[in-house]
Write a structure and sequence with these properties.
Trna Endonuclease, Chain: A, domain 1, five-stranded mixed beta sheet, about 130 residues
């Protein structure tokens, strides 16, 4: 329960950061698929950006972005392809970004890092 609350709080902070600091437009939040959830789907100019947000209380056990395994990348790729197909945007330029949020207990403002084009679409074979 606490992890979900921290994660939701981190996603809201990441969304605000991307809107205000990076001038991205949020198209969707917490888009759920059978492969998992796409945390944020944004538009950066004419590029659709699938943003994975990782929130932690500290980086004591490693950087939050390190939690994005190859399997997670494959699932995010499948979910992104599904979203693009559903919206008729399969030919549209897209990328995967990661936003790391470290929000220590008792702090009002988190530390936010944005990794643009953090990973390439993972090989998922023929999907559609």
């Amino acid at each position: 329960m606490f992890r979900k609350l921290l994660g939701d709080r981190g996603e809201r902070a990441a969304g605000k950061f991307l809107r205000r600091e990076k001038r991205m437009r949020i198209l969707a939040r917490q888009f759920s698929t059978k492969w998992g959830e796409l945390d944020l789907i944004c538009l950066d100019g004419d590029t659709v950006v699938f943003v994975e947000v990782k929130t932690r209380k500290s980086d004591k056990h490693g950087h939050p972005s390190e939690a994005i395994t190859k399997k997670k990348q494959q699932n995010l790729t499948k979910a992104a392809l599904y979203w693009l197909k559903k919206k008729g945007l399969l030919e549209h330029r897209s990328r995967f970004d990661v936003v790391s949020v470290v929000w220590p207990e008792g702090e009002k403002i988190p530390s936010i890092e944005h990794f643009i084009n953090a990973f390439d679409a993972a090989d998922v074979g023929q999907m559609f």
